[in-house]
From TrEMBL, chain A:
It comes from the Bacteria. InterPro entries: TrmE/GcvT-like. This is Sarcosine oxidase, gamma subunit family protein. It comes from Pseudooceanicola batsensis (strain ATCC BAA-863 / DSM 15984 / KCTC 12145 / HTCC2597).
TrEMBL record, chain B:
This is Sarcosine oxidase, delta subunit family protein. GO terms for molecular function: sarcosine oxidase activity. GO terms for biological process: tetrahydrofolate metabolic process. It comes from Pseudooceanicola batsensis (strain ATCC BAA-863 / DSM 15984 / KCTC 12145 / HTCC2597).
Length: 180, 81
């Protein structure tokens, strides 16, 4: 019998990774993505259940927790994104597979805040956005999530259907920073 | 104009959408108070209470106390909190 398997397709094809000046934009693979929205009054119980099952609890607003291959990122009001591993059965939360909805880029290099200053209305310099900080904002008219996953790396998540627009827009900003 | 979102901090206007005057929904069946709630609005020169949604940020609905003359923002709180 033929063994049919589903193969995952990268959300962005084309020129990635691109390097402009000191900055490199590449496609990141965060693994499976799940949104977790605890029901009213259940956030603490959901956080404990996640801590026990995947070793990462729910961070406060604007933060990200990562351990091993799993991460939990604040994704909005009463909403978190679990990445890397599937969350356990959470009766106190609405859990939705988001893996087909997002494209994830890593913007690495020392001038990340200068590039992002041309793209989003939020200060991403390390003093304002330290390691493991996570925000939601607007980029080129799109809702995005930006997180500092390492001291020199900003992880940008946007709509998967807009992957090529995001690639072009971020690359243009990198070129303009590199041209200074 | 900048609003200080209780979740996201200070953000500028492009992330927010105006959601109308922040009114208290009347109770019960139709009455003239419902008519006022649906149709009649103040147009104050001065302090106003408005709903705004942080659509491009955390998606929260906010109640903003704002002065329409001086553009001062007096308070931003989460609606329903």
């Amino acid at each position: 019998m033929t063994d049919f398997r589903l193969a995952s397709v990268p959300p962005a094809t084309g020129p990635l990774p691109v390097t402009r000046g000191a900055m490199t934009l590449s496609l990141a693979d965060p693994g499976p993505l799940w949104s977790v929205a605890p029901h009213r009054g259940e956030a603490a119980a959901v956080s404990r259940a996640l801590q026990e099952a995947i070793g990462v609890s729910l961070p406060g607003p604007g933060r990200r927790h990562a351990a091993g291959g799993a991460s939990v990122q604040w994704f909005g009001r009463n909403l978190w994104l679990v990445a890397g591993v599937a969350p356990p059965d959470l009766p106190g939360a609405a859990v939705t597979d988001q893996g087909d909805g997002w494209v994830t880029f890593d913007l690495a290099g020392p001038e990340g805040a200068d590039v992002m200053a041309r793209l989003i209305p939020v200060d991403t310099r390390p003093a304002a956005m330290p390691d493991q900080a996570a925000i939601r904002t607007e980029l080129h008219g799109m809702m995005v999530a930006v997180a500092r996953t390492a001291p020199d790396t900003l992880r940008i998540m946007g709509f998967r259907s807009m992957a090529s627009t995001l690639t072009r827009t971020i690359t243009e900003a990198m070129e303009r920073v590199a041209a200074i | 104009m900048r609003l200080t979102c209780p979740h996201c901090g200070e953000r500028d206007l492009r992330e927010f959408t105006y959601g109308g005057a922040a009114l208290t929904r009347p109770e019960g069946d139709w009455s003239p108070i419902w008519d006022e709630y649906v149709h009649l609005r103040e147009n104050p020169a001065g302090r106003s209470r408005e709903f705004w949604q942080h659509g491009a940020g955390c998606s929260a609905w906010l109640v903003v106390e704002r002065d329409t003359v001086t553009h001062d923002i007096h308070a931003v709180t989460e609606a329903g909190a």
